[in-house]
């Protein structure tokens, strides 16, 4: 068992929590009522707030069994791989680094369980939940909005379901992911959340973009 001091970062339920986009979604939200009824909305943007984010580092040989046992998902070992199952996901970031995203409130128990399972092996687990959030894009024109925002090739043949990359997006960087055929996800840093949200509002305006908080 690791002797690293860890603690529960998530505040108690009695304390009001605000996501990185709390202010933006309240001050700059775009509802369906605000969209031209003749054109309709071809893009929907939403924040998946308060998810658990863990960065896990180590060799695949060390992590493979522990990740499967604790998280319940197979560790993706090919470059840019993304495995999604039951509201959880694991994304390949580099040959010895992965991002684990969990339902809200599961990150502390998962971190403890991983440390218990991995024991004295060489590894690192870091809870970065407070520093990141996830934006989703969906709708028939989501692909066009992405094309306006990143040099990454987002054509379905080049970016199939189950792929995730780190890429330039507007004037910052994101983890761009495709968890299923209907949605795109952007894992973004807290400090750039408002900037990217407003960028996407502008990029999606011609498609009648709407926003919601999930």
Quick tags:
11 strands; single chain; Gyrase A, domain 2; 214 residues; 22% helix; 6-stranded mixed β-sheet; alpha+beta; 5-stranded antiparallel β-sheet
Q: Can you walk through the features of this model?
A:
This protein has helices at residues 22-27, 60-70, 107-118, 142-149, 193-203; strands at 44-48, 52-57, 82-85, 88-94, 97-102, 124-127, 132-138, 163-169, 172-180, 183-189, 210-213. The protein is α+β, with helices and mostly antiparallel strands and 214 residues long. A 6-stranded mixed β-sheet has the order 8-9-10-7-1-11, with helices on one face. It is globular, with a radius of gyration of 18 Å. The mean pLDDT is 91.
CATH superfamily: Probable tRNA modification gtpase trme, domain 1
Number of strands: 11
* Largest sheet geometry: 6 strands, mixed
Strand content: 25-35%
Low-confidence stretches: none
CATH topology description: Gyrase A, domain 2
Order of helices and strands: HEEHEEEHEEHEEEHE
Shape label: globular
Structural class: alpha+beta
Share of residues in helices: 10-25%
Major sheet strand order: 8-9-10-7-1-11
Give the mean pLDDT: 91
| Number of domains as seen in the coordinates | 1
Overall radius of gyration: 18 Å
Give me the number of helical elements.
5
């Amino acid at each position: 068992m690791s002797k690293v001091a860890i603690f529960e970062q998530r505040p108690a339920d009695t304390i009001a929590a605000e996501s990185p986009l709390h202010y933006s979604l309240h001050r700059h939200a775009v509802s369906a009522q605000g969209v031209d009824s003749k054109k309709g909305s071809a893009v929907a943007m939403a924040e998946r707030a308060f998810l658990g984010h863990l960065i896990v580092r180590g060799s695949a040989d060390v992590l493979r069994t522990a990740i499967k046992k604790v998280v319940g998902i197979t560790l993706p070992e090919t470059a840019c791989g993304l495995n999604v199952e039951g509201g959880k996901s694991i994304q390949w970031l580099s040959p010895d680094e992965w991002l684990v995203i969990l339902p809200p409130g599961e990150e502390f128990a998962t971190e403890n369980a991983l440390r218990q399972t991995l024991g004295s092996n060489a590894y690192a687990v870091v809870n970065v939940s407070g520093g990141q959030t996830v934006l989703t894009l969906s709708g028939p024109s989501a692909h066009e909005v992405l094309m306006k925002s990143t040099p990454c090739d987002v054509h379905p043949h080049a970016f199939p379901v189950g792929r995730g990359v780190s890429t330039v997006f507007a004037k910052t960087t994101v983890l761009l992911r495709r968890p299923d055929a209907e949605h795109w996800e952007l894992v973004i840093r807290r400090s750039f959340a408002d900037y990217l949200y407003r960028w996407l509002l502008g990029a999606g305006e011609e498609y009648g973009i709407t926003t919601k908080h999930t």
